[in-house]
Amino acid sequence: MTTFARRLLAGFLFLLGLEPAAALERIARTPYVGAIVVDAATGRVLFEDRADERGYPASVTKLMTLAVVLDRVDAGQLAFDSPVTVSAAVAGIGGSQVYLKQGEVFTVDDLLYALMISSANDAALALAIHAAGSREAFVGLMNAKARALGMTSTVFHSPHGLPPARDQSPDVSTARDLALLSRALASRPDALRYTSVRVRTLREATAQPFEMRNHNNLLGRLPGCDGLKTGYFAAGGSSIALTVQRAGRRIVVIVLSAEGSKNRDLRAAELAEQGFAALAAGDPAPGSPAARPGEIPTVKTDKAVPASQQSSTPAEPLIKFTPPAPPKKKP
Prior knowledge:
Elements: H1 3-16, E1 34-39, E2 45-49, E3 54-55, H2 62-74, E4 83-85, H3 88-91, E5 105-107, H4 108-117, H5 121-132, H6 135-149, E6 173-174, H7 175-186, H8 189-195, E7 199-202, E8 210-213, E9 225-233, E10 237-246, E11 249-258, H9 261-281
Antiparallel strand pairs: 1-2, 1-11, 3-6, 4-5, 7-8, 9-10, 10-11
Helix pairs in contact: 2-5, 2-6, 4-5, 5-6
């Protein structure tokens, strides 16, 4: 679509009162806007490609929501069993949600699982209001935490990462900044407790149980993967913050603003394999033959899919990993 056509469409929707967001220019690219792989223990960069370019993290933003809530728990200002009452503002939010109803009461623990497994925007807002008194105050805590972590190219405007409403701005970050946040969370067992769960039921003891399924398709498919978070909206494309642990070594992989969730998942899995290969080889720096941007080792896939045909809608991932053979029984 040409720039003129986009402006014409935006004006038409505005006149109809249908324009839902700030008409963001689409920035998603193939294979991504930026990517980075780091050693979680040391922060050493194992691979980077345009790691300082800004993108829209979308629901990867919820990692900062998790980090701030866990900080409040550590400080004794919240407890995992603290009750949270759902407000009308929370019940009216859109996008991915667990359909919280006004007046329902859940624990902080329940809502953190909903936040990480179902990427629930309503859970994110409920936690934000409960933890800080208002959405705005919580976003202030998010940005303060970002500065404390050294995330110099990041600005948060929401606790959930939804596309901005009219007169609002999008959350922005870089692959490098998101790696800093992901490293901080990957060092916390209480964070991985939420990010590693594939399926869990909310309202289990009620007449209307809700089955939550994790949006991270690499859980259970990429050996050692136990988090962290995916994100998507149209202008920002598909992003993922991935952490993988094998043989006592952990890496963090960030793919920011990729075209299509299949492309995102494939790139993230390939970069994870490259990261562990670099660790094993003791590769001293990015840009060496083993870690040059754009040179990615091959991972077995079901079939090759042209980038133009890749879909960003939820679907079976491209990657098909072969599990290791079980150990032979001793005679």
